[in-house]
Write a structure and sequence with these properties.
The longest helix is centred in the N-terminal third of the chain and has 31 residues. Strand 2 and strand 3 form a beta hairpin. The protein is elongated. Helix 3 packs across helix 5 and helix 3 runs parallel beside helix 7. Strands 1-4 form a two-stranded antiparallel sheet. A two-stranded antiparallel ribbon has the order 2-3. About 14% of the residues have low confidence. The chain has a domain of 173 residues. By secondary structure, it is mainly α. 29% of the residues are buried.
Amino acid sequence: MSIPQTAAAPSPTVAASPASSRPSRGVREEQVGERTHLEQAMFRLAREHAEAASRAARATPPDRQGEQTHSLVAVLMSYFALEAFINMIGADRLGTRYRHYDRMSPEGKWVEVTRLVSKTGKTFPEGGEDMRALSTLRTWRNALTHFKGEYEDVQQSNRGGETRTEAMLSAENAARAVEIARTLYRSFYEFDRRSPPRDFMWLDDRPHAGRARASPRPSAARAHAAVAETGQRAGPQSLPAAAGGGGAVPRRRRRRRRRS
């Protein structure tokens, strides 16, 4: 007669003590965070498309559709880059206090955040040329992002009959949008009196040429001088690669330590 075999009882497992998995008191635990610098990619796109709009306008015959398409991207990316930049500076330097300024107008943010965080305590004059230029860029952005496809009167220009929206999408305005963004970035660090961070080199701080025959329009004085002094066109191949290589969106790593 076979004797039934009983299964061996499993060996008891010893649960790890929660205390053993935690670092001892006083030991610092390091956390690594990464920041995606979209403002760099946005500004690079703005400059590239402004230059493409300029080439389309100078083509024979002029490529008006290409000029409008590239101008659309250049205007929007210039505005988005400015907004992303001042939000990043405000959150970095003001911390939780920035929530009181986050809902301000773009002009209000650039005036107040610059005043609060800059080493000199100085800021852009309210109603000055820089802020008027930013207001113009914001008007263009609003007209494009909230476009309703309404019927518009046709206006006559050197390009023939165009609606107000069509006329706004020009190589001249694309170049102006890039110059507004570039001028505000540089002016911020002039007020700040701190050296721009290493990854700020993405700005590629050269005036945007735009169209040589573009007629000047009201803008920041520095933007006007920059456009007037630059006579040659710089192609996209001369643009610096973003941090991280190629066309990838750059990121920056920051290490933080916390005491347990």
